[in-house]
Amino acid sequence: MNDRTDWRDWEPSRPLPVEGGIAARSKRGAIGETWWSQRFIALLESFGVGSRLQRGRTYARRGQVIELDVEPGIVIAKVQGSRYTPYRVRILCKALTEQQWRRLEKAMASQALPLAQLLAGAMPGDIEDVFASCRLTLFPRSRGELKASCTCPDSVNPCKHIAAAYYILAERFDHDPFQIFAWRGREQAELLEHLRARRAGASAAGGGRRAAHRRGSTGAGTARPTAPESRDPALVDELDSFWESRPALADLHINPLAAEATDVLLRQLGPAPVDVDGQNLVDLLAPVYRVLAEQAERRAIE
Question: Contact at 8 Å (CB) between 73 and 94?
Fold first, then answer.
């Protein structure tokens, strides 16, 4: 009889079944639908743990992950293994400092399209460029900034319980990209509040400069400049060719495809001063914008 006492000799190979676990939506192939969740998995693979991740894919799809919570700097999960008591998994990530987040928020607010997409609850396609402009990264840049532990007796890291938590975390990022920011130290509500405040401050400053310019140009003792004489031809002289296309029109290219965030303009303008049945007018108009964009795209393609 073999008298080895290694835990692998006596622990059952199949995990205990779980009811109501967090099962991965992906049933075959790769896990992770969006570019940012795929980037997260690719990052793990670049750290040299890619082959070990496969051990947890079955666990993730069976729903063995019971709980998974994302908090600033840490992900806490419970994974049911072959023992009665679930194993506790901790995934530590270096959270960004308050000063780093202030730099990021300033960079986000200074770019109209990323700002509008963030305010609409979408992940900008160039968000990594925004992070890079602040000499930061969306995800941890090295294995030293990402550490994981599990209470199971397996000495290999990542074990199948950690790997399962990684996969469920990637799908959590799929569903809600703001969870990435939360993991890096900034909750969605706080981030959007800061971005709106920065945008409102910039708008107020711009309005003040324009008002000062108008006062200076029309103030007492200041000669009001006369409008330069128009050099454009009179309309009456252009009636024969007014509706004809000019050569420059051939160089105009229009993309008929709907934008990824069709209500960007609404979100950029911010909440309207009108509520209807407890809903802001912007939220009521957003579906209309999406329908109009889809119909316009369909008509353009037909």
Answer: yes
Instruction: Tell me how long the chain is.
Output: 302
Give pLDDT tens digits for 59-82.
Answer: 999 999 999 999 999 999 999 998
CA distances from 103 to 28, 92, 135, 184, 274 (A): 40, 23, 10, 14, 33
Tokens 């399962």 found at: 164
User: What mean pLDDT comes out for the span 171-178?
Assistant: 94
CA dihedral (284, 290, 296, 300) in degrees, to 10, reads: 180
Parallel, antiparallel, or unpaired: how do β-strands 279-280 and 275-276 relate? antiparallel
Nearest to residue 77, comparing CAs of 167, 190, 211, 197? 167
Cis bond upstream, residue 158 (ω within 30)? yes
3-class secondary structure, 150: strand
Maximum C-alpha span of the chain? 108
Q: State mean pLDDT over 225-249.
A: 56
Given a contact cutoff of 8 angstroms between Cβ atoms, the answer to whether 61 and 200 are in contact is no
Chain mean position to CA 292: 24
d(CA 120, CA 268): 8
Q: How far apart (Å, rounded) are the C-alpha atoms in residues 170 and 40?
A: 7
175 Cα distance to chain centroid = 10
The whole model's pTM is what? 0.64
User: At residue 130, does pLDDT exceed 80?
Assistant: yes
State residue 273's pLDDT score. Answer: 72
DSSP 173: H
CB 119 within 8 A of CB 268: yes
Q: Round to whole Å and give the CA distance between 277 and 279.
A: 6
In terms of Cβ atoms closer than 10 Å to its own Cβ (0-12, 13-18, 19+), residue 187 is middle
Summarize pLDDT for 175-197 with one digit per residue, the tens: 999 999 999 999 999 999 999 99
- The confidence score (pLDDT) of residue 104 equals 95
What gap in Å lies between CA 93 and CA 169, rounded to an integer? 13
Q: DSSP of 256-293, one letter per residue?
A: -SPPSSTTHHHHHH---S-EETTEEHHHHHHHHHHHHH
